[in-house]
Structures are given as structure tokens and as C-alpha cells.
Specification:
α7 links the parallel β7 and β8. The chain is built from 15 helices and 10 strands. α4 runs parallel beside α6 and α12 packs antiparallel against α13. It has one domain: Metal-dependent hydrolases (TIM Barrel, Alpha-Beta Barrel), CATH 3.20.20. Bound molecules: zinc ion (ZN). Zinc ion (ZN) binds next to β1.
């Protein structure tokens, strides 16, 4: 079935792997990130031994299984870029995982349930070539984490890159606000203010997490994001990764009409998804939360939680009008 205006799309799904099936992915886990990975595997009912090998295939199978038996018809699978400096030199030994573009592009070609979210650092010497290749191969969006991958999106040197994206109708999904699960390189780049250049070049920009804070001491940039929504009709936000202790406190704000009318649904899978935080924040009753948490299909659980919380229906289908979809 082709994507239509009513197709329910999860526009923020991570792929993880150890490279065990030739995917080219890697994971470098230590300390907190290792514990998080073990917790995630347990939540998914997968053995921790998969971290030593075999994760890639099992992970993709699990995603397909969830999509085939759920309300969610499509998932944008996100590649994950290396960290580079402004001169385009790769910064080694930083970053906790890598997912190559060709892996998500291949998966999207093989399975109609998947759309490809590629990831390119615009300072790379071959950034424009890689972008052209990804566009040709059917990329649905370009994802980056400016604060973790060291990307100042408003650096004038990246103008050509954004113009090419705008011309191809390829949206940018940019992480905004605090970050918990990936090491942060430059905190200043968490501010959605840094997204002005791509917006002015005409790129459709989705600010992941609506610039909310993820820790108590994080700066909350939601205000800046809301101001920019009024200035740029090509700016959107996603509601991904918010079923967490701190981010959940921003649900009330993003459910207000000025933001909720510009939202795109995303789960941030495999970040744990539970109705507990929405219940503690007063959006759900105890029995509602219990029933929602009993749904083993976490991609579907996330949609049902958000529907019960009052996210407007357009949230779940807006992506079809924003993403670059294959013909
Ligand atoms: Zn994410």
C-alpha cells in the first residue's frame, strides 16, 4: 500500500547493530550507555548476549513484526553519523554508535514498512556527493544530532548543503534540547535557534523533542521553538522520546494548539515507552496506564498512549505531507 495522507507513520525510529550481518553498524558502550543498552534489550525481551553479536538481524525482525501487527504502517529508520570537526575531519573515539546510510537505504528498499532516514555531517568533504547519492536512493529525511555530532547548522559554509536538501524536498530531522542516550559534544547546538539557516534556505525542519530538556539542569528551549514556529511555516516538531521522567513534564506545553498543530509523531524507539510518566503527570488514570502498558507492541503502545493523552489525530499522519516519499 502506498503512503497516503492518512498513513500512520512513526518518523523517529533508531536502528542499532553491532555489524554482525555486514550492516556496517557499530556500538561502543561503556558505563551508563552499556546499562541503558542492557535495559533496552530486557524491555524488548531480547537476550543481552546479542550485544556480542547477532543484534542487527534480530532487531530488524522485531521492528518488522511490530509494524506488521499494528496501527503504525511505516517507520522512518534512522542512520547515525560520525562526529566531525568544522574542517571535516572525523573525530575518533567520540560517539556511542554508528549506523551507515547504505544500511537504512537498503532496508527501506527491501521492506515497504521502512522509510530511510539518512545522516550526513555537512562538514564532510564528500557531504554533497553523499547527499546526492542518498536522494537518488530514496532518502525520506536527513537526521542529525547537532549537539552530539558537532554541527552548527547555521554555519554559512553549510548553505549549499541545505539548499540542495530544500531543492530535493528532503526534510531535516534535527535533535533539539537535552540528550540522555548519546554523548553530547557541544551543548550550544541544542538550541533550535541554530536551525535558522536551513529554515531560511527553505528546508522543512522537524525539531526532534520540540527542544525540551531531558535533565533537571538542562536548558529548556521550548520557548525559542514556539517563537520560531510563528516565524517559519516550514518548521515542525516531533513528540519522540518524551515518555521519560523529565521530558514528560513538557507534554502539557506541547499539547497546546500552537505546537500540537505542527507535531509529527515519533517514538524514538528503542528508548523505553511506558504510560507511567503520562499517568504520573495526570494525563491518564491508573487503569488506563495499566492497560496501555500491557500492550507488548511498543510502537503501537506509544501511539495509543499519545492518543489517550489528547494528541490531535493530525500528529500521527502529518509526516506523510512532510517527508520525501518514494514514488
Ligand atoms: Zn532519537
Amino acid at each position: 500500500m502506498p503512503v497516503t495522507s492518512g498513513t500512520l507513520i512513526d518518523a523517529h525510529v533508531h536502528v542499532l547493530g553491532t555489524g554482525s550481518n555486514g550492516s556496517g553498524c557499530w556500538l561502543r558502550l561503556s558505563g551508563y550507555h552499556r546499562l541503558l543498552a542492557l535495559y533496552i534489550l530486557r524491555e524488548l525481551g531480547l537476550p543481552s548476549t546479542l550485544l556480542k553479536g547477532g543484534l542487527d538481524q534480530v532487531y530488524v525482525e522485531r521492528l518488522l513484526q511490530m509494524l506488521r501487527g499494528s496501527l503504525v504502517s511505516r517507520a522512518v529508520l534512522l542512520a547515525h553519523e560520525h562526529v566531525y570537526d568544522e574542517a571535516g575531519r572525523r573525530i575518533e573515539n567520540f560517539g556511542s554508535f554508528f549506523v551507515p546510510n547504505r544500511y537504512v537505504l537498503e532496508l527501506a528498499k527491501r521492506h515497504p514498512e521502512f522509510l530511510a532516514g539518512v545522516s550526513i555531517h555537512p562538514a564532510r568533504h564528500d557531504a554533497l556527493d553523499e547527499l546526492d547519492l542518498c536522494i537518488e536512493e530514496g532518502a525520506a529525511l536527513m537526521k542529525c544530532l547537532p549537539n552530539c555530532q558537532n554541527i552548527d547548522c547555521s554555519n554559512p559554509r553549510y548553505k549549499k548543503f541545505w539548499e540542495r536538501m530544500a531543492q530535493a524536498g528532503l526534510p531535516l530531522l534535527a535533535h533539539t534540547g537535552g540528550e540522555l542516550s548519546v554523548p553530547v559534544y557541544n551543548k550550544l547546538y541544542s538550541d533550535p535557534e541554530r536551525l535558522r539557516l536551513p529554515l531560511e534556505c527553505g528546508v522543512k525542519v522537524i525539531a526532534a523533542h520540540c527542544a525540551t530538556s531531558s535533565l533537571f539542569f538542562d536548558t529548556d528551549y521550548t520557548k525559542n521553538f514556539a517563537t520560531m514556529l510563528r516565524q517559519y511555516p516550514n518548521l515542525f516538531g516531533d513528540n519522540s522520546g518524551m515518555q521519560t521522567p523529565i521530558r514528560s513534564r513538557h507534554f502539557r506545553r506541547i499539547l497546546e494548539e500552537d505546537i500540537s498543530s505542527r507535531l509529527i509523531h515519533g517514538s524514538d524507539f528503542p528508548i523505553p515507552i511506558s504510560a507511567t510518566w503520562a499517568r504520573l503527570r495526570g494525563f491518564l488514570s491508573r487503569s488506563q496506564a495499566k492497560e496501555l502498558n500491557s500492550n507488548k507492541n511498543v510502537l503501537e503502545r506509544d501511539v495509543l498512549i499519545k492518543r489517550a493523552m489528547g494528541f490531535p489525530e493530525g500528529t500521527f499522519t502529518r509526516a506523510a505531507a512532510v517527508l520525501r516519499l518514494p514514488n
